[in-house]
Amino acid sequence: MADTCSCCLLLLIATAGVAGCVRGDRFSIIDELETLDIEEDFDTEVPVVPSWFINERDGKTLVNVDSFGAAGDGITDDTQAFVKAWNTACSMAKSVFLVPLGRRYLVNATRFKGPCAEKLIIQMDGTIVAPGDPKSWDPNFPRNWLDFSKLNGVVFQGNGVVDGSGSQWWAASCKRNKTNPCRSAPTAFTIDSSSSIKVKGITIQNSQQMNFVISRCDSVRISEVLVSAPGDSPNTDGIHITESTNVVLQDSKIGTGDDCVSIVNGSSNIKMKRIYCGPGHGISIGSLGKDGSMGVVTKVVLDNAFLRDTTNGLRIKTWQGGMGYVRAVRFENIRVENVSNPIIIDQFYCDSPSACQNQTSAVKISQIMYRNISGTTTSQKAMRFACSDTVPCSNIVLTNIDLESEDGSVETFCNSAQGFGYGVVHPSAECLNSDINQSAPTLLLHTEL
Ligand SMILES: *[C@@H]1O[C@H](CO)[C@@H](O)[C@H](O)[C@H]1NC(C)=O
Ligand SMILES: *[C@@H]1O[C@H](CO)[C@@H](O)[C@H](O)[C@H]1NC(C)=O
Ligand SMILES: *[C@@H]1O[C@H](CO)[C@@H](O)[C@H](O)[C@H]1NC(C)=O
Ligand SMILES: *[C@@H]1O[C@H](CO)[C@@H](O)[C@H](O)[C@H]1NC(C)=O
Ligand SMILES: *[C@@H]1O[C@H](CO)[C@@H](O)[C@H](O)[C@H]1NC(C)=O
Ligand SMILES: *[C@@H]1O[C@H](CO)[C@@H](O)[C@H](O)[C@H]1NC(C)=O
Ligand SMILES: *[C@@H]1O[C@H](CO)[C@@H](O)[C@H](O)[C@H]1NC(C)=O
User: Fold this and answer.
1) Which of 62, 184, 324, 360 is deepest in the core (most CB within 10 A)?
2) Which residue segment(s) compose the domain that 298 sits in?
3) Of these residues, 259, 281, 346, 435, which one is catalytic?
4) Residue spans of alpha helices (H) in 92-227
5) Which atom of ligand 2 is nearest to the CA of 178?
6) What pLDDT does residue 17 have?
7) Predicted local confidence at residue 421, as pLDDT
8) Distance between Cα 150 and ligand 1 center (Å)
9) Is 319 inside any structural domain?
């Protein structure tokens, strides 16, 4: 798709008296971003069944891990009981894989693989804990602890807890102590290569690294989940969405040592609503474009969120030298409190031990709307649009913004960023109008009428 604004600028250069072009363009951009809607009715076929309703009269078969020899004492290794119960539940239609209430199961890294017979419910009422010692971690599972894959039409529900017992992993991280080697740690809970999935109610905590990853999935609804890890636990992203489409995340509370939510390459149609985030690094698109890679994220809406005590608010982060684009994003109805960088686009993101060089290629960022965002910032630059010098950001739209700092001085920073505000925008974002090209646009705008 051609960038509408640069089209318009070309037009300005080619012809005279085209003020209407700019205005018409703005209206159509505003209209496009205001009406950006994420389809949410994709999952009507997998209703969440209330736990009290699950009984065998309903034609469901309860597959209780205890019946397969799980001890549930938090000390005995229950991995084999989980594997056997999974194989049974997965092979029978309408079964309920049950992790019963009031018990604690020690489970090693495990793959729970589909495809399974239809209408599987994973009822998580008890607690599942990971072994805590990184030195005795199974080397065949370097990246995952509980890994669910190739499922279709499956519901995960209950008020159970998935606990990664991550403290020894955090202590061994190079982010905690520079003398440690930089190695990655497992993700606590992964749903991979699956479709029509619901996750409701569960708690995921203290992961070794990322808490909850949705990868290569389509049609996922996550609601009422709680994700938590200490604010200083390294790289413990809350919910990480990669190569996934049609994901709705709602009514959830996330507080971790990294991004509350991170949305990366290959993801589109992502809707988040009623999210509490903090502590953590905010709600992020990215990082994208590391090591020259392709990163594409489109159609993301965050509506109604409260961020408190986070190091960023609404963030888009890309590395120098990437490819691809982030397009059609709307952040709206958001309250921030004690947040540094409430609104930030950072195209100079560099999360590596050595410094990153500036490069000419970059992930293109365009059509990003911020609407009704208010609250308090701890950084003077309440809005920061640090875009690539060679691939400028375009069509950043701001409206009804009110960000304040304790000492009253707030400002907007722009580098190579184009866009506009309307209605109340505080701090003002004049730099979006002029920064993309210091000479040409302003000159043309002055001569237009
Ligand atoms: C769990 O992992 C530990 C450490 O690698 C190993 O000794 C144990 O046998 C594993 N348990 C199962 C059931 O595979
Ligand atoms: C970092 O690790 C080294 C080697 O294990 C240790 O001697 C040092 O005390 C650690 N530093 C901190 C701040 O924990
Ligand atoms: C980005 O996502 C696309 C679509 O899922 C995938 O084909 C591609 O391999 C991904 N690229 C990288 C660098 O991960
Ligand atoms: C603000 O947030 C930081 C974490 O980013 C926290 O350490 C600090 O206590 C918070 N301040 C207040 C007043 O809540
Ligand atoms: C603006 O966002 C806040 C949440 O921060 C919400 O309470 C309020 O209703 C929103 N205002 C409008 C006009 O939607
Ligand atoms: C990269 O470019 C940005 C924006 O022009 C500039 O502020 C920064 O100093 C540059 N960084 C390096 C390492 O050259
Ligand atoms: C700004 O405009 C000048 C003159 O039209 C052009 O040479 C230059 O490449 C433009 N810079 C950017 C960053 O678009």
Assistant:
1) 324
2) 259-449
3) 281
4) 167-171
5) 1
6) 34
7) 94
8) 24
9) yes
Kindly give the parts of the chain with pLDDT less than 50: 1-22, 44, 437-449
Burial 126-146 (b: 16+ CB within 10 A, else e): bbbbbbbebeebeeeeeebbb
Active site residue 258: yes
Residues 263, 293 contacting (CB under 8 angstroms): no
Distance (Å, whole) CA 241 – CA 246:
11
The answer, yes or no, to whether any atom of ligand 1 lies below 6 A from the CB of 108, is: yes
pLDDT on residue 360: 96
Domain assignment of residue 59, yes or no: no
* Beta partners for residue 204, in sequence order: 162, 227
**Over the range 376-412, which residues count as b (16 or more CB within 10 Å of their CB) and which as e?**
bbbbebbbbbbbbeebbbbbbbbbbbebebeeeebeb
Question: What is the pLDDT, as a whole number, of residue 433?
Answer: 84
* 226 is a domain residue: no
**Does a structural domain hold residue 354?**
yes
Domain count, the chain: 1
Q: How far is the CA of 317 from the centre of ligand 4 (A)?
A: 23
Proximal ligand: closest to the CA of 440: 7
- Ligand 2 pocket member 179 (CB < 6 A): yes
Residue count of the chain: 449
CA–centroid distance, 437 to ligand 7, in Å, is: 6
Domain with residue 366: its CATH number is: 2.160.20.10
Per-residue tokens: 404: 């304040």
